Amino acid sequence: MYDVSIIGAGVVGSAIARELSKYNLDIALIEKESDVSTGASKANTGIVHGGYVGKAGTLKGELCIKGNELYQDLNDKLHFGYKKTGGVVLAFDDEDEKTLEKLYENALKVGQSEDDIEIIYGDQIKEIEPHVSDEAQAAFYCKSIGVTSPFEFTIALAENAVDNGVDLKLESEVINIEKYSDYFEIETVKEKVKSRYVVNAAGIYADKIASMLDADDFEIYPMRGEYVVFSKSQGHLVNTVIFQAPNPKTKGVVTTTTTHGNFMIGPNAEEIDKKNDVSTTFKEIKYIIDQSRKSIPDFDTNRMLRTFAGLRPKSTRGDFIIEESSVKGFIQAAGIDSPGITSSPAVAKKVVNILNESGLELNQNKDFNPYRLGITVKKDENFAGEIDHQDPEKNIICRCETVTEAEILDALSRSIPIKTTDAVKRRTRAKTGECQANFCGSRIKNLLSRELDIPVEQIKDRDEDYVPERLDVFELKKKLNS
To answer: InterPro entries this protein is in (predicted)?
Structure first.
């Protein structure tokens, strides 16, 4: 019998699992895929938003600023990759400037310091962002904005939770839940799990999970956001995170760099029907490129590496849903769309408080270890690695990102099992470089085959069965240049 079972090992579920592992509890983290962070948590902008993003008086307003404040300490302990870059919201006309004033007012209402925010103009903008468009006449500048690696963050949370005693149950899709007098019975495709409390952190499928207990007083609908990732050669174009002032027609798109230095643009916002449709389309990618040029006019589309899409779990309530449901002991952590990555550490603390108020006894786990070592190893020009070197620490598997055999072996040795090349990619950055796995893809499969002792043809690339239709970047470049 578990004290708490969490359904969904995205960033929210993993953050809750780690927070609960600070106490003497038996905890299960249940995930339908073969790895953590395979849904919205791996496919988003990776922005640690300023508190102003959440409207005052909402859960988003309460938790975004609290989550932002927790990031530096978490990164110091878990080493997932986080940079406090600051960010600007650009205004291109007088109406946009009025929007900036509203953002400033909301920032103060949610508790952001006046020292953290200001409205700047002309040369002040150029001092921060030299490559920004000359059409930008003002900007809301927020110093506490940052960027993170969302999938590395989720993996770090889950890994640390498992290291502190959480049972991670992968490939365990939940198909039914029954409520008994003082416990729940969760039926997965593998087993039946008994638990005193259940937390629904199932992301895009949270309404489906809630319906199993007739607690679905909301619906989740997928909002698709498409992105373009460029090579690091374009990374110099952006110093902070650049937003555009939202208006009734568009929320604008973001231009940013990843924690590893790649230039990235997106997303758009498309309400779609299918909860697994992460395809990319020429029409929407073209829109994102055109909109991004309003902010940074001179990026080179010939340096595009790939497109991708993620699904945000929008709820019919229009805000985060974090509460004990009508079913005693069944806690909702649903509808966590943007700024969900930012808010997730604070969401976890709120869920733990709700569980405590519902009767869960919290006694400190004196053996809790908050630390986790990173996997990627930074190399400088003196790194003496070679392809096919006998020493794993010098044997380069991915030459674009200089990922070694030792780093991949480290990832494989951790407490979360790895079965796919994408799982390796999320932990080491192999496959993410200029050649997009044309060189290292087969080498990773051979390494996994050797270490897992299974035939190489059984090694899959994706953890999910669904394979999206993504734009071929070479064809995309041809169309854009024609």
So the answer is: BFD-like_2Fe2S-bd_dom, BFD-like_2Fe2S-bd_dom_sf, FAD-dep_OxRdtase, FAD/NAD-bd_sf, G3P_Oxidase/Oxidoreductase
